[in-house]
Amino acid sequence: MEENDKIFLQTLNGQVTEKVPFWFMRQAGRYLPEYKELRAKAGGFLDMAYNPETACEITMQPIRRFSMDAGIIFSDILVVPHAMGQHLEFAAGEGPKLDPVRSVTDIGKLKPGITGEIFSKVYEAIERTRQAMQSEGFGQTALIGFAGAPWTVACYMVEGGGSKDFETVRSWAYRGPEEFQQLIDILVEVTAEYLCGQIKAGAEAVQIFDSWAGVLEANQFHRWVIAPTKRLVEKVRMEHPDVPIIGFPRGAGVLYRDYVRDTGVSAVSTDHMLPVQWIGNALQPLVPVQGNLDPVALLAGGDTLKLSAEKILNELGSAPFVFNLGHGVIKDTPVEHVEELVTLIREFER
Ligand code: CP3
């Protein structure tokens, strides 16, 4: 199968393919029994992510079951601060914990020069996964690389983990914009290098996850989400002009439109808070769109799932569109619900 026969890549290039391509954020993970089995044997989440063989295996798991049109390499957005020497751990069932960066002195302790040791593990996982896709007969499946956007990664770095409303990082951005800009600038540089490295290793498209784009006021959104993402897109595109870049400014609401216009992303991933019709009117004329089934509809199953998925396909399916969720698969999601959804997408006639 030729590269350009992959319907996911054709769609990102603006074509309307016969079938609607699909993949799901967090398609590899705890809703799959085979993942839980590996997870129980492995030392921890980071041990799995940094072992190229395991990362490849986990990336392949959902593809073997559901033949998605794209797989996303099994890794995490917090690999970037970790690779710069920030302490990171994933305590079981608790989410990430980092030693917070809260001053210029803390920023000065980051080591953007030592990232290669960790990044190379991810690159190797990507190389292996491309080979596995070929040798296991999934030549029509594309491989996506990814990174967190500078803003979202900074959120975790400054807060030291997840947060209800990210007050610490948001107030630093207001009080000391020149200081905070230094952190963002480092992240733009390192993330550009990291995404380019993933593409060289075999990633055929990349996604930029800005999971906390939605917590910012509009002017702050322009400064900390749009501006750094624009620079990141320019840097990656300078080296790899033909590789599609998908942006995901989760929770951005009406600012999604500014984001698409001003960052120059090739395609946009939409969350489930956005009305499907608005996506069709405001975003799809600008770029190919990905999204936006509520992961809770997938968890719930039944008529809710069927009706929501059909509405999305009917509204967005006649222009370039990749079916996805509005956020990641929830861990208690029954595998049968995912099976039902896949059948529904595959049977849809454009
Ligand atoms: O299949 C895939 O989507 C690929 C792998 C992937 C993971 N994380 C694996 C993971 C991707 C693309 C991510 C991105 C990521 N990581 C984001 C952006 C997307 C989003 O969800 O908004 C964010 C914010 C993170 C940071 C992160 N990683 C958190 C907050 C957590 C804990 C919450 C949780 O779900 O456990 C993680 C851990 C994590 N990353 C897991 C997985 C499969 C769970 C680890 C486990 O098995 O215990």
Characterise this structure.
- The structure is a single chain.
- The chain is an alpha/beta fold and 350 residues long.
- The protein has a single domain, classed as TIM Barrel (Alpha-Beta Barrel).
- The chain is 52% helix and 12% strand.
- The protein is built from 16 helices and nine strands.
- Strand 5 (205-210), helix 11 (218-239) and strand 6 (245-249) form a beta-alpha-beta unit.
- Coproporphyrinogen III is lined by residues 25-30, 39, 45, 72, 74-78, 90, 95-96, 146, 162, 209, 211, 328.
Annotation, overall tally of beta strands: 9
Give the termini distance in whole angstroms: 23 Å
| CATH hierarchy class name | Alpha Beta
Question: What about the largest sheet?
Answer: 7 strands, parallel
> How are the strands of the largest sheet arranged?
1-4-5-6-7-8-9
Task: Give the second-level CATH assignment, the architecture.
Answer: Alpha-Beta Barrel
Cα gyration radius (Å): 19 Å
Q: Return the string of H and E elements.
A: HHHHEHEEHHEHHHEHEHEHEHHEH
Helical/strand content category? alpha/beta
Total individual domains: 1
Please give the count of helices: 16
The kinds of small molecule bound in this structure are: coproporphyrinogen III
Q: Give the overall pLDDT as a whole number.
A: 97
Percent helix, as a range, is 40-55%
Percent in strands = 5-15%
Silhouette:
globular
Q: Unreliable segments (pLDDT under 50, ≥5 consecutive)?
A: none
